[in-house]
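hey m, so remember when u said the tokens were messed up on ur end? i reran from scratch. heres the input so u can diff it against urs
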Amino acid sequence: MPTPLSSEEIDRLARKRAGAKLGWYIHATVYVLVNLLIFSMSQYAFGTRPWSLGPLLGWGVGLVLHGISVFVLGRGSSLRERMVQRERERIERSQSGR
């Protein structure tokens, strides 16, 4: 069982997680604003060629991966914690079997 965190460690971890989430929200906002601009330029300034879909999809993949790293695999997520716990148990079993 992991050792309990001190008040300072909890505060540091909470700030780090909040910063990661805020970073994703900023990333998503910039993504939407820039891609709205690119899309409007492609439609009104440069004709109707769908060239704006390339940046939209490419950057969208990056945004999704960023979200996964923050919300799914980030430190403290239930998936990550379960995986860490399983690895600890495996290591302890291998250590006790020696």
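this time it looks ok to me. The chain has three helices and no strands. if urs says something different then somethings off w ur setup not the seq
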